[in-house]
Amino acid sequence: MKVLLLEDVYKLGRAGDVKKVADGYGRNYLLPQGLAVLATPGALRQVEEIRKRAASRRSALNEEMSSVAEKISNLWLAFPARAGETGKLYGSVTAQMIADAIKEKTGVEIDRRQIDVQHIRHLGDYTVNVRLTMDLVPKVRVLVHREGEKPEQPQPEAEVEEQA
Fold this sequence. Notes:
Layout: E1 2-5, E2 18-20, H1 23-33, E3 36-38, H2 41-44, H3 47-72, E4 75-81, E5 88-93, H4 95-106, E6 115-116, E7 120-122, E8 124-130, E9 139-146, H5 157-163
Parallel strand pairs: 4-9
Antiparallel strand pairs: 1-2, 1-3, 5-7, 6-8, 8-9
């Protein structure tokens, strides 16, 4: 099924793009949510108008969220956790836990679905992306350490990437 996107859709495309998607995805999600319409000749004539409106909406949203991005970027969060001898956690650090910690530290409410991370199940230092908009993706540092131990101060960014 070919659809014309009316809104930016994460991992699919930007507004005004024509994309080929699975029938079920288009019929059950994109069309009912108002994120896309079928790519008919009539709809394709409106592509430029859709792109202009989306660009203005996107720039306004980016301006609004830039202050939030500044607060969140390079934030450092520490999570104490119980772990075995090998460093494997008895539980996990979830996106919801990270969202709650961000709210506690900065007062900014982030939805757990905006945080790009699988459950963290090992001790270590992680870099997590927070998707505010398609263009604004600040990074948050997450340190998972043993309960009862004092967390180490964060290392420079270049050294963290090598460990992850």
